[in-house]
Amino acid sequence: MTEITLIFQLPIWVESMNNRILIVDDEANVRLNFRIALEMEGYEVFEARSAEQAVDILAEHSFALAILDMRLPGMDELELLAKMRECGTSVPAMIVTACGDPPHAVKAMKLGAIDFLQKPLRPAELRNIVDEIVKRHAGSDDSLFETFAAHIASAKRYLRAFAKTRLHLVKALELNPRSVEALNLAGVLAELLQDYGKAKKYYAQAIKLDKSYYPAQENMRRLFEVDQFGSSKEPINLGDDWDLWSLS
Prior knowledge:
There is one protein chain. By secondary structure, this protein is α/β, with parallel strands linked by helices. The chain folds into two domains: about 10-160, Rossmann fold (3-Layer(aba) Sandwich), CATH 3.40.50.2300; about 175-245, Serine Threonine Protein Phosphatase 5, Tetratricopeptide repeat, CATH 1.25.40. The protein is about 55% helix and about 15% strand. The protein has ten helices and seven strands. Strand 1 (about 20-25), helix 2 and strand 2 form a beta-alpha-beta unit. Helix 3 runs parallel beside helix 4 (about 75-85) and helix 9 packs antiparallel against helix 10.
């Protein structure tokens, strides 16, 4: 493999401010990819493979941004964010996840997360978003504007993600309108968009087609518990070997 030496000049705005980025992810390949992408922009990158390790690093150094994986072993990213705020650490935090989870995002935003993005992230996309967040955070003393800008940026990204999901589900149901898996996923999407009536109809259709299809039964049971008791500990079930996550 040919070794390539990259020579570049740091942007003036990077040289004149804290340019440290902390990446917290238990996957070594993810940390490496993020490190390479950001070091090319002149950032000084620190890595932590767990939330506990991140707490120690945050106690020793100041950072322009912390990039947190949503599914950390042990202490998860919400607990890490809470710990950071308890310790008085005001570093902006960006959460990266392999699956969209709006309820989780709301909790993260309440704890001060400044953005919430989905994997996979292309290097150019990561660099652009990090640059935008770091410059915005460093250049604005107006906390209200900062919060507004962060929420608007995240909202736009979520809208694009949901639009893609809906498009694929529509196409899947056109190809196979009797697919219990597609109907269940359509119910999940409707539920995440808070259209609970439509979600129940999709789950009910799936159950009617296959009374033994457990994911739709579990999702329907969760909605029933939310209606009756105001909350539920039942996780969203995407079916098969997909990840489960909780709305509670």
